[in-house]
Structure formats: C-alpha cells, structure tokens
Amino acid sequence: MELKKLEVPTTSITEVKRSPMEVFDQAKQAGTAVYVFNREKVAGVMLTQTQYETLLQELDELRDGTSSEPPQKEEEYADTELDELYKLLQKSLMTGSSISAKVLDERMVSYGFITRKTGFGGVTDMINELKQSGKITYQSRQKSQGKNVIAEIMGKQEKSARLLDHIIIEKIYMK
C-alpha cells in the first residue's frame, strides 16, 4: 500500500515544543495550517491568528446563510454510499458560498477524492481549469460498486476576493 504524501506543511510535536513560533511562521508562509504529528499520527493543526479568524468568519457566513442563491434540490442516487457522500459535499460546500481553491481541495481530499493540487502553490491549475471549463473535476480514490466516482464542482472565480484563488460554488454534480 502506497502512502499518500500530504500536500500541506507538517511538523512534529517535538518541533512545536522546541520552537512554536517557527511553526506559526511556517503556517503564515504557506498560507495554510500546519499538521502536527506525534508518532506518525496527526495530533493537531496549528494556524496563525489571521487564518483562524478567517475560518471563523467563513463559518459564521455559512451559518447565517448569506448565500444569494436559493438552495439546490438534492438529486437521488441508487448507491446509498454515493448519496451520503453527495449530501456531505452539499453540506460542506454550500452553493453560492466562496471558498479558496486550496481549502476546496483539502475538503475534497478529506472526503476521499484525489488531490488536484500539483507542485508548489498547486491551485493555479485548478483555477485555470475553472476558467476554461466552468468546473473542477475530482475523482475518488476508491470505486463505488465497481465504478469510479466523479465529482464536478461548478462555479466561477471570485474577482472581489483579496486573493484570486477564491471560487464561488454554483453547483455540485456527482456521477
């Protein structure tokens, strides 16, 4: 079994004990959380204050339902595993909401899809695909009932965001 390399910065609990400020600097430079490992298992995640506050703000916006579009009707699937996954995606990637490409990719990976980020930065290819086709396509790591599961995140690049890696999710398809 091949181990998957994390696409995010990592450190050990020993390094955190030795110099926590270096880990915060690492999170700031990478623009993402740093996973802290203890004996080859994730013990926690470290964020800068700004990253944490941004996450809280996004969560509040999602809870307030500041989406300008009405909720989409969920489609039915014969495969209950696929149906549950679809509902999970609908819940965590709300239509009409804005999300950074990096966070989108991390969430999709956490739900069992293959990462779309490649190399340093990694989100450029995702944004380019979105501009060209209007969607970002993900493939699952495991098959469901002998078939590959494909998720298509339909949307557009958010132009008003500070960083140009934010996406407005319009619809989610699974096949």
From TrEMBL:
InterPro entries from the UniProt entry: YefM-like_sf (IPR036165)
Highest taxon, organism lineage: Bacteria
Family: Belongs to the phD/YefM antitoxin family.
Protein name: Prevent-host-death protein
Species, as recorded: Tetragenococcus solitarius
